[in-house]
Design goal:
The chain has helices spanning about 15-30, 35-40, 45-60, 65-75, 80-100, 105-115, 120-135, 135-150, 155-170, 175-185, 190-205, 205-220, 225-250. The chain is mostly helical. Among the domains are: about 30-100; about 170-245, Tetratricopeptide repeat domain (Serine Threonine Protein Phosphatase 5, Tetratricopeptide repeat), CATH 1.25.40.10.
Length: about 250
């Protein structure tokens, strides 16, 4: 809200701290819903403002309004290639959201077309979730590596979620461990991230380190999450004892 009690903008759904801050910054810098709406009204030929306002309408699930703005941009003869591409990309996202995640073809096609650029991060995030839900390992890896290249080094939640998927699907286990370690460096006291590190260590045969990481995770975790983590700790300790006995026999 502003000082007059008028809505500036809104943020819906959960965002981890880093993404929350990156969402707040442009709002504070004057790129809020309210400011963009006024700008679009005063400057109807400002196509960049139209695209930015369309994004805000998407967040409010005002898909018809967003679509109208993007179509206006695409129909404009003087639209620059960059603005036109931005509108095309938003239309692909819009189709996915309107279908509640069922229409993935357009989103995938646009991502595939632009995956050598940094301009399809939003598309990749949605695709990542959809491919993870469908256990489409190769596609998760393709989208996951794109996201790591463009936002992953600062996004602990992304690093963690991608590492967990790889580990629990026995895919690229060394890469999973690398990502989990990076996530822990960013958020060393996050129980869910230490839990992922424990699983990645276990899958890589580093049982002692897995036990240590898991014990730390349990200490930091809310009580409601401990039971599942304790089950994993039991699995890690069992593997560690078995490895120790095997080592004794061979020596």
């Amino acid at each position: 809200m502003d000082a007059k009690g008028e809505e500036l903008d809104r943020i819906t759904g959960f965002r981890p701290p880093d993404r929350f801050i990156s969402t707040i910054k442009p709002i504070l810098a004057g790129k809020s819903y309210g400011a963009l709406k006024k700008k679009a009204e005063k400057e109807p030929d400002n196509l960049e403002a139209a695209v930015e306002l369309g994004k805000k309408e998407e967040e409010r699930q005002q898909y018809a309004k967003a679509e109208a703005l993007y179509k206006k941009v695409l129909a404009a003869k003087d639209a620059s290639p960059a603005i036109r591409e931005a509108a095309e990309g938003r239309m692909a996202l819009l189709s996915f959201m309107k279908s509640r995640g069922r229409d993935i073809a357009g989103l995938h096609a646009y991502f595939d077309k632009k995956k050598d650029t940094a301009g399809v991060v939003d598309h990749a995030r949605l695709l990542m979730r959809a491919y993870q839900d469908g256990d489409e390992v190769a596609k998760v890896v393709s989208v996951g590596e794109y996201l790591i290249r463009h936002v992953g080094e600062t996004d602990a939640t992304l690093l963690n979620n991608y590492a967990w998927f790889l580990a629990t699907h026995d895919e690229k286990l060394e890469r999973a461990l690398e990502l989990a370690r990076k996530a822990v460096k960013l958020q060393p006291d996050a129980a869910f991230i230490l839990d992922t590190l424990g699983e990645c260590l276990f899958r890589n045969g580093k049982f002692k380190e897995a036990v240590e990481a898991q014990r730390k995770a349990i200490k930091l975790a809310p009580e409601t999450q401990r039971e599942e983590m304790e089950d994993r700790l039991f699995k890690f300790e069992k593997a560690l004892k078995k490895a120790a006995k095997k080592k004794e026999r061979t020596t």
